[in-house]
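Below is one record:
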Amino acid sequence: MTETASCSTGKSGPVLSVDVARLRAIAAATPVTSNEMLPLDAAVGRVLARPVVAASALPPFDNSAMDGYALRQCDLASDGPWHLPVKGRIAAGDRRAVVLGPGEAARIFTGAPIPAGADAVVMQENVTRSGDQITLSVRPRPGQNIRRRGEDLDLGALAFGAGVALTPPRLALLAGCGVPNVAVHRRVRVAILSTGDELAEPGNPLVAGQIYNSNRVLLRATLVRLPWADLTDLGILPDDPAVIRTAIRAAALSHDVVISSGGVSAGEEDHILDALRAEAAELDVLKVAIRPGKPLTVGRLGGALYFGLPGNPYAAAITFAQIARPALRRVAGLIENPDTWLPAVAGFTYRRATGRREYVPVTWDRRDPVGRPILDRLGQGASASLSPVARAMGIAVIPSDLSTVLPGQPLQVEPLWE
């Protein structure tokens, strides 16, 4: 599937839809295969490399879900109220083998083991106690307020398959069923570089014609937050074809993924594509019907996945988020693709040329009657703009065939959570 667009990068090849470009990028990604064993405390955010089964049942024994009294259903055969003597007290951690005799109840606390013979727990609020006797008027259901052994996860049951990210709740589940260590994929080795004689790093004085390199900070700040990525920053490369070719060749030899920004359009000083072709790279995407960010390169350079992002900051941010990041997740071995898009409605008017799916920075402080955010557009969508996206609460997507956005138009928005 391809989409037409009004502008051209000057390079050959069809203009691909965002969805097709994303799928091609994912298809070009090769998951890492080596792994390492880590204790649970060191594995947060890492990607599980092998299935994990429960080393212990969770819970490991029948236990009380409430503070109350354990009793036997058969002792409540006649009509109530019922009067039962209290024989003993069982707290969490009690190791005694308590047996409940006929006509007896036992004081029990949350998490304590259910005594042998008991088949229900009555909440303490539902009984009246006088000395060593309780009185209750409502017969509990069989099994009421009892957490059965293995009802959460049985011994030997599959906890998680390979390819899931180890979030704090998932690690807690593994700890609860007795798993001390997990096999995780090694971190993805990612190299980033910028190209352009016009770039200077913040803190250095600008000479005539230079701008500060914001893309490096953008990519670094994004990638260092990924627990499964190991980042190398190769800095700024000059607009020299030989230097660029040497640098990307070396990066591909020692990394799983190489990401460059700038130099992927059609200008005489845009050397990335020529360097990739000279290195016999397998290029999968050249032009994408996306605004901002149509000039984009995705492919393989030797054993590495390669992304050539646009040089303009907002275009680089959008193409990374929509196309590069899903492919990076596949390299990491992740099988889950979280859907973070939410329904919203436009609170603005916007007329535009069709042919490209557009991503616009938005904010909101009100909602419609069904709770959807009413979006306010920020800035003019220029691919070099930084202020709008820096102030945005989210990114809204406008379909490629929609020429006019009017207030009330249903849209999708992806919140930019901190």
User: Anything to note?
Assistant: Confidence is low (pLDDT under 50) at residues 1-10. The domain at 15-34+186-331 is CATH 3.40.980.10 (Molybdenum Cofactor Biosythetic Enzyme; Chain A). The longest helix spans residues 313-331.
